[in-house]
Fold this sequence. Notes:
Elements: H1 7-20, H2 25-39, H3 59-65, E1 73-77, E2 83-87, H4 90-108, H5 112-135
Antiparallel strand pairs: 1-2
Amino acid sequence: MSLQPTPGETARSELQACSKLRLTRSALTAQVRRHSLTSMPRKTRVVRLSSKGQIIIPASLRRQLGLKKGQAMEVRRGDGRELIFAPVEEQNLDLEAMLAQARAWFAKAKDPVEELHRRRKKERELEVQRRERRSA
């Protein structure tokens, strides 16, 4: 003899308990659906694209992901019409800034060979002046 109720008996007893609360079967079903729909974590959010091409990330997602105002985001195309956004790591930004600085320096810099010749010429002139002072 089993002391545990069968699944049918359990369902009947729950239905009877609900009927005591004056809930009909359809109302109970609707309530269960509503609860399961609202308690399930949502994986997608609907946002709108502004006329300037801007998208607002919901505040709850920004908090969960630790996104800050003005933080750089990387965007790439996924499968089909999917867009994938990811925060850019600060280290990557530092590296990009250093590379930009180096590129700017090289853009303004003179030809390294000419620069070497100019320095050597200046060093020779200084050496000649030192020798003249010693001999005088």
